[in-house]
Design brief:
mainly alpha, Farnesyl Diphosphate Synthase, single chain, globular, 0% strand, 2 domains
């Protein structure tokens, strides 16, 4: 099966934006946001399309509309997430006044709902959009409260945020093709969402640019494990997180601390956890009653993170 390219998804989404919003300034703003997101790739939309095909969906117009709706919704939440965290400084929406970026996010949520309603006669996929969004907001709430102090609280937050949004993408495709829920799909999509988030958190703990998680005092699994380490660098890290030392003082030691972090058991531990989630998800995909060709593509994609 030929999965939609990022160009196809982006073009369709831009066409719908032009049709639905008559204000030139708003259209220009949303188009800039979509173009920025397209550079990253529309991976959630790919999962929606694969699951639509997995269970026999054949209408490419339905598939494209649902894929674009999912990506519009994910983009809206990405914008809000970055604004709330004051992260993603390189993103297009971070260059705009906060009020305009927030309004753009609201527009994309409304657009996603409207687009999905056009191809969802039963209303199940739209309901799933709402349910997953509420669960993701719950996870984000705990992330913003910085209440993540243990493995358990981290994984609960990640299941609510990344897991539920991956499940949204997979279940939208499933519901539009089957007309009913599939608990196995729901289970492995949450596990794969957790694996994907762990992969991102490992990368973001070690990058040296301004979006580094440690620099922003984020509480991810790699960071939690680094904070448990012993030694001078770990002490500096704990002092930084407890605000005993300033960001400027921390930055003077940044390179040494990140070199220590990259070789630490914290990263190894996080990588193993990611692999466990990954393998659990792949094992469940193999048990799904769907097209073998599509299952192979799903597994290949899951193994790539």
């Amino acid at each position: 099966m030929n999965v939609f390219t990022d160009d196809e998804i982006g073009k369709h989404l831009l066409n719908v934006i032009n049709e639905e919003f008559r204000d030139g300034d708003l259209v220009e703003l949303l188009a800039a946001f979509v173009s920025n997101k397209q550079e990253e790739g529309f991976s959630f939309g790919r999962m929606a399309h694969l699951h639509y095909a997995l269970f026999g969906g054949q209408d490419r117009s339905v598939a494209l509309q649902s894929v674009a709706a999912v990506e519009a919704f994910i983009l809206a939440l990405d914008i809000l997430d970055d604004l709330e965290d004051q992260d993603g400084s390189e993103k297009r929406w971070m260059e705009e006044p906060i009020a305009l970026a927030m309004n753009g996010s609201t527009a994309l949520i409304m657009l996603a709902t409207s687009m999905l309603q056009r191809v969802d006669s039963s209303g199940q996929a739209v309901a799933r959009l709402s349910q997953s969004g509420m669960r993701a907001v719950t996870g984000q709430h705990h992330d913003l409260l910085k209440s993540i102090h243990s493995d358990e609280s981290y994984f609960q937050m990640v299941e609510n945020k990344s897991g539920s949004l991956m499940a949204l993408a997979c279940m939208v495709g499933t519901l539009l093709a089957k007309g009913e829920d599939d608990e196995l799909v729901n289970a492995y999509s949450i596990e794969f969402g957790c694996a994907a988030q762990l992969a991102n958190d490992i990368e973001d703990a070690l990058r040296l640019d301004s979006t580094n998680d440690i620099l922003h005092r984020k509480q991810t699994l790699p960071v939690l494990k680094l904070l448990e380490q012993e030694g001078e660098e770990a002490d500096w890290l704990r002092h930084y997180y407890s605000r005993v030392i300033t960001q400027d003082a921390f930055l003077e030691r940044k390179k040494a601390i990140f070199e220590w972090a990259s070789g630490s058991s914290a990263i190894t531990y996080s990588t193993v956890k990611k692999r466990v989630y990954q393998l659990k998800a792949i094992e469940k995909v193999e048990d799904v009653d769907g097209k073998e060709e599509i299952k192979d593509q799903l597994i290949e994609f899951m193994q790539s993170i």
